[in-house]
Design goal:
The protein is α/β, with parallel strands linked by helices. It has 2 domains: 6-165 and 306-414, Vaccinia Virus protein VP39 (Rossmann fold, 3-Layer(aba) Sandwich); 179-303, no CATH class. It has 13 helices and 20 strands. It has helices at residues 6-13, 22-26, 35-46, 74-88, 107-118, 196-203, 209-216, 218-231, 249-260, 331-341, 357-364, 377-390, 399-402, and strands at residues 28-32, 50-55, 63-64, 69-70, 92-102, 123-130, 148-155, 167-169, 179-181, 193-195, 236-240, 265-270, 273-279, 282-286, 291-294, 297-303, 307-308, 347-350, 368-373, 410-414. The strands form 4 sheets. It has a 9-stranded mixed beta sheet, sandwiched between helices. A 6-stranded antiparallel beta sheet has the order 10-9-11-14-13-12. Helix 6 (196-203) packs across helix 8 (218-231). The protein starts with 5 loop residues before the first helix and ends with a strand.
Length: 415
Amino acid sequence: MSAPSLEAALRARSPRAHARTARDERENLLIHGDNLAALRSLSPRFAGKIRCAYLDPPYNTGRTFAEYSDALAADDWVAMMRPRLEAIAPLLADDGAIFVQIDDTQLAHLALTMDAIFGAKNRISTITVVRSATTGHKAINAGPVHVSDFILAYARDKKRWRYRPQTRVREGLDPAYATWLDDPDAPPARWTFRPLRAAIASMLGHDSSRAAVRAMGKLDFEQMVALRALESARHVVRFAQPRYEAIARAAQQIVDRSRERPERVFVHEREGRPPFIVKGGNRILFLADKVRVVGRRAAIVEPLTNVWTDMPFQGIAREGGVVFTRNKKPERLVARVVAMASDPGDWVLDPFLGSGTTAAVAHKMSRRWIGIESGDHLATLAEPRLRRVIAGEDATGITGETGFRGGGSFRKVVM
């Protein structure tokens, strides 16, 4: 007997389902059943509606865990993944995207499979996620120590996909910001500069940075430099050589003039953009432009790259109030994917829901979600976790960052 369709399961769950309401169309779905059958059953209702799909499938490590088996031949693993990826493709919105996290065991097979289904031209990025340090039993491997996962990101149509820019906090001061501007409120023609460390040393009552190091110790002085630079970010600048061939003709002319008169600061005003400020042929960039309030404190941020080293996996075993020690992902990692690929109110899909991380994250971020899981841990881990989220009883993960205090609902469907 074939598995019931999603619509049949919904009708069995609710006698009024044949008269679909606006709430039905918005309600989050927790589906217990085979994810391939569920994905295919989603098509009538959700074709073209999923803005972000995040998959954390079995890595095929060759091991068997209490929650699932992770030991297949490579061809069998691909045979398992291919139809599921094919079933997701029509569910994606025209500007939607899919993100699949994996380690290097099946990375090549997965990339080739996703190239075939979504098109190599629609690959957005291959993201490296550093998940552990070179300690413990991993360090005795015969070869480089494996410390990373990978996320393969594909758009349904890369020309339509819109990246929501993300930043990350930078630990410590960028050494390129090594110059102090005495009076940023003065006209640029009167600006004076001096070395950052000399300026901070003077503020601390020392004749020079060398004297400050002798008196305070190198580590303490450098920490004080970073702190004072952050507190006075409008005074801290760096000089950067512009790509001459990539800037507008008017900006090129300003650069040429500044090279002729290196002692003077030149300003080129640009409509709708920050002014282009140069001295000696180099742009003047302000540290203040990289400072944001993060978690109620000022921090230096920089654009997100495709190497994520700031997503610690340590200490997350009980995140969400569930113990799922094998391959559990941090809420902050999933939140970054959801943030870069969707907006509040958008649909997020996870067909390998596991302990419920993606659904919990999407809920806290005001996205609508569909989570699918076949294992018994849907009832023992994921469902209780999501009910705690709705009740406002989960203070872990991204709860504090999002300000989520509970609310919402979901419908559980058994297929």
